[in-house]
Design brief:
Four copies of one chain form a homotetramer.
Chain A lengths: L3 E6 L3 H13 L3 E7 L3 H10 L7 E2 L2 H7 L4 E4 L6 H10 L3 E4 L7 H14 L3 E3 L7 H11 L6 E9 L11 H4 L1 H5 L2 H11 L3 E9 L4 H6 L6 E8 L4 E7 L7 E8 L3 E4 L8 E3 L4 E5 L4 H4 L1 H17 L7 H20 L3 E2 L1
Parallel strand pairs in A: 1-2, 1-4, 2-3, 4-5, 5-6, 7-10
Antiparallel strand pairs in A: 7-11, 8-9, 8-15, 9-10, 11-12, 13-14
């Protein structure tokens, strides 16, 4: 069988995470081209993945003109997702698009429509759904282990701010989009319902210099959601988070509770003269979700080869975008927003 | 030194918790009288604590007429707290009053005023503050261990509903008062600030028969608060909670995070042919906060003996009542409420 | 009911632990006398427990001549236990004796015989048996939760060396007696069997200056035991242990495993810029077994009042002494010793 | 670069573990042949890894006659390891050999000698050394985090017995070899020393029918070792272990303690009406050490490509064989054995 040829669209941190996975752990696929407007980054990954000079691109229009491949993995800034997806889909290229799917629901709809029309796969990068713990939890909830869900809580705290372009909330949807799209998806996925009403508060506590230029910028926030099935959601967001990377969920049901995730990186424990029990902490999403990224990317390739519907669809991406937009509106207006 | 003579005002579950503590673990005090409108309960505790027949009362007015003592421990329904406190204080009796302090801020003010005027101790039953873990955490926060607090989360889930009188939210403030006063106090205490704005949602998911009679009754809720110093609070409430008793806090600061409490009852762990790791779970507040109740009651007696200001004051009780009232208003109106 | 009058025989660290328990948490008993050859220590505790000058003693013979009481709590050095027990028992005084019970089996037999003859209670201080976790584990094992025990492991590591008199192994049985009597008792108790064969190794790794004077002194050791029912025991001993106090057991059975105890002091967890998960560690046996000491001392008083056989008997003490003696013999000879 | 061609020698459980790793996660290698005396097993894996019919073998001599490859991965029964290694090495084939390396030290020496002479890589399958937790712990110890090691404890309990051929201790070295080679290696590796003296006890508690035919068979054992640098080792062995797979180490040093490994499979936690805290348990070495196997196999291929000395050598394998042989001798003779 020929390998699925993949073009990395974006050669930043997330591009490299997917690149490493494709290079080492997806035998049915091969990286055959790299694109980034920052050509140095593109070259860097190209060298790492043994891709020839002529398959490195800094203009997106060139990618599809001069390279041949079957799928793209989009990790560029959010505002580019819709455009790149549309161009690629029209050429029958399958699309894996990192979260957030896009800036607006309208963009999401356009992406969904074109991919459906062109009959290409569109998968959104909610890798938590491929994590062993998260997927086990989802199954437990569906099997009734904790009864009917009442409250879903999701923690999303990350060490590093997204790029400067994301500081302007109006054009990027801010941290709730860039950092907490996963949490909005988790609440929706684990509650098996859609957002009905969202109340959010936010403030800028650690980033006063960013606040000078972008007065609406916030670095911590909480979100209180009511889902259509009356499940309550609670999300908290902190980024930059000085102590590490923290992604955990807690689901309270009518008959029990379920905790997903941990801040422990590995099981080593030490005690020393400092008279403390010390354990290594999760510092990066790359390590925390390493296996999930492998499962996610293998799933995408499997969907392409076998013509399957992906486990995470454009609709999933769109619903999260809509919820994030509502949360930002709530922050600005100080009242709950109906969806 | 003569022992401080204590009258138990209320001989239900909470009365017995304090009674046991005074009987076994507060050498400077002695229980000398018991009151309960349910005389059978009063007799039961009287026998347990070796109190003579003539010191058992079913009318509160009789207690002060026929018995002599130095202090009362009030564990009767919330709507009685103000009246009993006022009667006792006028006779120079010191008052330990369980949470919630009262139904309204006005009542709280009356209790505070009379106790101040009569120069008697008024301590409110937020025993979490006397728990080793909670007080250690408070110290850590104050020492700057996690920087400035950004978000304080508090979980308050209990196995058993309060008495029937508390199902009528209008007259009792409902579960947010009876079960979650502790959480409202924790958010305030750990954030070192006062409530500014509260948004809450609630529903009745498990108690449809109660809902018939009391349409406003809720058994699960979430609260999103903004404190005056801009710290965010998140509280969730579930009662009855089928899996046990769950009281935990999490404080995210500018430089770290801190977790308080656990659902583990003791450190025993078993693994069997069921292929699961199993640990005993906290089932009751009585056991979870056993040592805290001892510390709390010893503190009250110490304040009486040495004329100290209690660590938990009428003002602490009042602020929590006001926050609970605002949360219930938010539930009814669907909007955030300013305090 | 009159209170049981207790004389503290020994006013050192262990004497104070029991003294505090009796003073604060055993309402049916009262401390009425204190003895210690170091009179300053005796006076210190006497003041703490509000005992009058005339009830402080520095000669053991004076204690029984000039004071009246019902029971003694022996916490003096091990080599005194037999003598004090015999003198007290002959005067119908009940005896609580800290571990190790004595230096030799012969002494243990004398203590058992005299107490039986004089019909007084003799309880040995294996407080682990009164710990909630240990006793829960014992019940689980007996209920067949993990099948038949195969291997019992016990960790006994303590921060502080016993007194100088205990450095001479020949006259004290050394750390295996002073620190690890609890472990020898746990293996025996949890396996429900008696020692058959013991192999032990030991060395002095941290205390070279003690080794100058006492060449047989060891500060770390391991013990491999075979019980009469073929259960295997594994004990490890480290003292002084720089990181804290560590008392844990692990029981592997035919159908499962069970872990008892933990190095966590309380449930607080913090993560900071140090990028580590940090928890407070157990530093002292006093805090780790605080509740167990209360239960142990209440049990002793209950046995006196109600004429019950104590849960931990002279025979339990004796069997542990015999096992420790065999382990020390194995260390010296380099071969396993049959009991 | 051409891929390193690998022949799987053995198509049982361990063969499949390595096969899956090579197939999915080692891009620089390709499985090109499979051998097993049980041809059905060989065919099964061949189909899974898309290997053609003509590259499936049931006679070892045929493998080297009819197939061309660069390396073999030996997972056949222990008594075949020496022979296969020698045949392969003479044809300049690199050898990865699962533990135990062989039955006797003499065999180990022959394997080491031939591989050295033929200048081929010989790597032994102690995958724990490639586990993130174990290797982190090793580094911590070397950095002095817990001072000098005093005691190294290793738990090795597995759910499934090795093949029937391993029940005859004399010809297989039994469970201490098949199950606990890892523990013997861990004690040696973590103590940075060689075995000096070993005392072991063993019994057959659950497998009476095996005991009929093989009276020396044991299914649980403990090992007490003294290393040349006076570190003490404690190993316990249980197999079959009904509750799951359990591989943990604990290292006590002069200044602290370090725990490696856990029985938790993932971080999900549930509490239900059963009133217990429940976590998924590690059930299989395949899952527990999944990432370690990937790192181990990538390391082997890296050593071949870049001519490096493997991190786990024939000498490591030999030292463990010698220690296991001594432990079995100790079990039989009832005394400690000097190495």
């Amino acid at each position: 069988m020929d390998k699925i040829r993949v073009c990395l669209v974006g050669a930043g941190r997330a591009g490299e995470v997917h690149g490493d996975v494709y290079f080492l752990s997806v035998p049915d696929a091969a990286i055959t081209a790299v694109f980034d407007t920052d050509i140095a980054k593109a070259k860097n990954l190209a060298e790492k993945y043994q891709i020839s000079e002529k398959s490195i691109f800094e203009k997106f229009e060139d990618v599809l003109s001069y390279a041949t491949f079957d799928a793209i993995v989009i990790t560029t800034p959010t505002f580019t997702h819709c455009q790149y997806t549309k161009i690629a889909a029209r050429q029958k290229i399958h699309v894996f698009c990192e979260k957030p799917m896009a800036i607006t629901e309208k963009e999401c709809n356009e992406m969904i429509d074109i991919c459906r029309k062109e009959n290409v796969i569109l998968q959104i990068g909610f890798m938590r759904r491929f994590d062993a713990g998260f997927s086990q939890a989802k199954q437990m909830i569906e099997s009734g282990e904790i009864g009917e869900p009442l409250i879903v809580k999701s923690v999303g705290r990350g060490p590093g701010l997204p790029g400067r372009w994301a500081f302007d909330i109006k054009n990027s949807n801010g941290n709730l989009a860039e950092v907490n799209s996963h949490d909005f998806d988790s609440v929706r996925w684990l509650s098996s319902s859609e957002y009905k009403k969202i109340y959010a508060v936010a403030k800028n506590s650690k980033s006063s210099e960013i606040g000078m230029e972008y007065p609406l910028f916030y670095d911590n926030a909480t979100v209180s959601a009511t889902m259509k099935n009356e499940v309550f959601g609670l999300i908290d967001s902190v980024c930059p988070c000085d102590y590490g990377y923290d992604a955990r969920c807690e689901v309270v049901g009518t008959m029990g509770v379920l905790f997903i995730g941990s801040i422990r990186e590995c099981t080593t424990v030490t005690c020393t003269r400092k008279k403390q029990i010390v354990m290594p902490q999760v510092l990066s999403w790359k390590k925390r979700f390493h296996d999930a990224y492998i499962a996610e990317d293998r799933h995408f390739i499997d969907c392409i080869i076998n013509g399957k519907e992906p486990g995470v669809t454009g609709d999933d991406g769109k619903k999260t975008v809509a919820a994030v937009v509502a949360a930002n509106e709530s922050i600005l207006k100080g009242i709950p927003i109906e969806l």
